[in-house]
Fold this sequence. Notes:
Elements: E1 2-6, H1 8-11, H2 16-24, E2 33-42, H3 46-53, E3 66-71, E4 80-85, E5 93-102, E6 107-115, E7 123-133, E8 136-148, H4 155-183, H5 186-191
Antiparallel strand pairs: 1-2, 2-8, 3-4, 4-5, 5-6, 6-7, 7-8
Amino acid sequence: MVFGEMDGRDACNSVMEAQVICRHHAHEPRESQCSSVIVRHIKAPANLVWSLVRRFDQPQKYKPFVSRCVVQGDLKIGSVREVNVKTGLPATTSTERLELFDDDEHVLGIKILDGDHRLRNYSSVATVHPEIIDGRPGTLVIESFVVDVPEGNTKDDTCYFVRALINCNLKCLAEVSERMAVSGRVEAANAV
């Protein structure tokens, strides 16, 4: 279930979600940029969800628009990945750098460096937090972004498009995580 979408700065005024948003997700967009925060509750344990989100080298495990990903060298802050995008989107490739990675606090941040798309100066941060849903271990996932508004587009159009992509990714993350949780595959996901 999607909890909501909000501007990072406005969310700071709105209890666990607000604290996390203020700490990791309060982007300060320039006049020619837009920014948003997307929140999703997932009925699977946080360690399982994080085992998927943390895989900068394998985003296709839950991102349905990614067909292939290649990372050169060791996986660390500064690592660059080349992503191939499935047909149906206005892009075929994206070059992205790992900007933030904290296995203890479950924080992952990326920046798009290049690609045949219109997402210029795009940065995103995803955080994963344990919570209880219906008396069982669950996860709160928060993803935020900031991106340039392409010439000829409005802020609303640009934010709508990026939010739709992130919502689709988080929906698939929930489906994959919940399926793995039901089948008891937490250890298998962490072993990769």
